[in-house]
């Protein structure tokens, strides 16, 4: 192995050793570095087999119950009466982590937009409908749903196709380039700008803001907490200006106008409005971006599947779903128990945090037919996965995501016989967003 190259097999072997050598009660897969190194798989394999409802001690993130089997995840996700989304849907940092970050001047940026924690680690109340329970959740979800309805998507498709073609036609031939930057980010940002009704010139600002929201300083995106706060303020001001413009204009079909004029949402406060903007920016950005990159990665790692796709483009829709399962762009969602609850022989207490590890459920050997670790683009039930969640919070944008993936691959196959992965990608430092920061590829020639 040459310098700088990643020996994936050796890395996986080492991670497996570590996962099985750790005493079970100390096993903690909620570690961003594990995911960045793609070294989390053996942890989940062991947990599914030995302790599928696992009390996980605090590390960088707060202590919680980790749910790792497919059917258990569905059971928790569909029981919103007991398992609440209020107070946050990602894990808050542990007290030790907060103290360490405060010592570096992190202040209240540490809580993370989705964790429901402020600088003291206390829940700070709901601000976006992904982190709300009924009835408020249902009302706000209903207001944005028309923007991603099948009829609106039918309008969107030609525009996505045109932009996808433009993006692909601008790519260099025979030269290395970063697929994440040139394609995945471009396509998702363009789609999101259209949904929000903002100018295409500003689309990459959305990408930047989406990255900044999720970023921990010192891991590539922002250098300091101060920088993070400053960029978040700019983001907030941009969208407050849009609200003010749209609220004074006649209702239109974009998401901001829908929120500004919706009977149930027009009275929402600034914090709630910006929370929903952030939700839609991230929901529609990181996830789809990482699926687009994941499809190129997976097809390169499985050349037989790439060959099958080339010879049979009808497989694109099932390849898209298989990529969403295999990639699992959001590794988990969190809930909080509203009452004591006996589950699979464990006593979950009121107030306990519960994490549904979608990334593990999607590899559950007892539910996913055939080898769940294999990437197979013609599975019999390709949409049988938990990547979009289940129950009342199931991803509202799932059809938008599938549409973008389908269109980009239809356009790719018409243009390029091959997209070659040149080296292992750089993965995101997070155990929530599972994706790629950089992926160098080369397109040898056009069709
Ligand atoms: C492959 C791409 C995507 C994946 C894997 C994904 C995944 C998810 C997951 C796991 C949830 C939460 C489920 C839960 O808490 O039970 C969710 C909710 C949500 N997603 Fe997505 N998502 C994707 C694309 C999108 C897109 C393109 C949009 C917007 C255009 C979007 C907007 C949302 C919103 C608004 C929610 C909150 C729904 C609610 O609380 O009722 N997502 N998504």
Helix content: 40-55%
Spans of 5+ residues with little confidence (pLDDT < 50)?
A: 107-111, 117-126
Strands of the largest sheet, in order across it? 1-2-8-5-3
Span of the ends, CA to CA: 33 Å
Shape: globular
Essential attributes:
447 residues, alpha+beta, 5-stranded mixed beta sheet, 3-stranded antiparallel beta sheet, 47% helix, globular, binds protoporphyrin IX containing FE
Description:
The protein is 47% helix and 9% strand. With 447 residues, the protein is an alpha+beta fold. The strands form four sheets. It has a five-stranded mixed β-sheet with strand order 1-2-8-5-3. The model is unreliable at 107-111 and 117-126 (pLDDT under 50). The structure holds protoporphyrin IX containing FE.
Ordered list of secondary-structure elements with their pairings:
Elements: H1 8-21, H2 32-36, H3 41-50, E1 53-56, E2 64-67, H4 70-77, E3 83-84, H5 95-103, H6 136-144, H7 150-169, E4 177-178, H8 179-196, H9 203-214, H10 225-247, H11 255-261, H12 270-301, H13 303-311, H14 316-327, E5 332-337, E6 341-343, E7 346-348, E8 353-357, H15 358-361, H16 398-415, E9 420-421, E10 426-427, E11 436-438, E12 440-442
Parallel strand pairs: 2-8
Antiparallel strand pairs: 1-2, 3-5, 4-12, 5-8, 6-7, 9-12, 10-11
Helix pairs in contact: 1-3, 7-8, 7-16, 8-9, 8-12, 9-10, 9-12, 10-11, 12-14, 12-16, 14-16
This protein binds protoporphyrin IX containing FE (HEM).
The site of protoporphyrin IX containing FE has 29 residues, from helix 12 and helix 16.
In brief:
By secondary structure, the protein is of the alpha+beta class.
